[in-house]
Automatic annotation (TrEMBL), chains A, B:
It catalyses: N(2)-formyl-N(1)-(5-phospho-beta-D-ribosyl)glycinamide + L-glutamine + ATP + H2O = 2-formamido-N(1)-(5-O-phospho-beta-D-ribosyl)acetamidine + L-glutamate + ADP + phosphate + H(+). Part of the phosphoribosylformylglycinamidine synthase complex involved in the purines biosynthetic pathway. Catalyzes the ATP-dependent conversion of formylglycinamide ribonucleotide (FGAR) and glutamine to yield formylglycinamidine ribonucleotide (FGAM) and glutamate. The FGAM synthase complex is composed of three subunits. PurQ produces an ammonia molecule by converting glutamine to glutamate. PurL transfers the ammonia molecule to FGAR to form FGAM in an ATP-dependent manner. GO terms for cellular component: cytoplasm. Its main location: cytoplasm. GO terms for biological process: 'de novo' IMP biosynthetic process. HAMAP family: PurS (MF_01926). It is found in: Cytoplasm. This is Phosphoribosylformylglycinamidine synthase subunit PurS. The keyword Cell inner membrane does not apply. Its EC number is 6.3.5.3. The keyword ATP-binding applies. Keywords: ATP-binding, Cytoplasm, Ligase, Nucleotide-binding, Purine biosynthesis. InterPro entries: PurS (IPR003850), PurS-like_sf (IPR036604).
């Protein structure tokens, strides 16, 4: 089993209301000097693959087909 | 402005129905050999701090107070 971490983040320029709400909440909690906050998703996946390269190819395929909306999101795959 | 990435993941042993649903969906899409999938959250935060150490302290405080539920979640802070 090869372990990997996939991080999906919103592309630059895409509005992130959840991040904005967190910014506001941090301000209300007394954290001064908080700049932008952007929220994304992380997936820790275990795949059964012969080698890291084929695992990475499979994981990128998963991102394109299910895990990320490539119109508005970027993704990165890191093999652990 | 210091940029940081906060990753919040469920602790081991905490049930992750969202991850289980993704596992099932990947199987239905024809991805064989997918082991466990666990979903977490990622926050890209910019903070105004004098040095990386004070930024990290402030970010950990944010995690404890707002971004993570420390009963069921772990968090890591990486300064970029």
């Amino acid at each position: 089993m090869i372990k990997a971490r996939i991080v999906v983040t919103l592309k630059n320029g895409v509005l992130d209301p959840q991040g904005k709400a967190i910014e506001g909440a941090l301000g209300s909690l007394g954290f001064a000097g908080v700049g932008s906050v952007r929220q994304g998703k992380v997936f820790d996946v275990e795949v059964d693959a012969a080698d890291p390269a084929s695992a990475e190819a499979q994981l990128k395929d998963m991102c394109a087909k299910l895990l990320a909306n490539t119109v508005i999101e970027n993704y990165t795959v890191e093999i652990a």
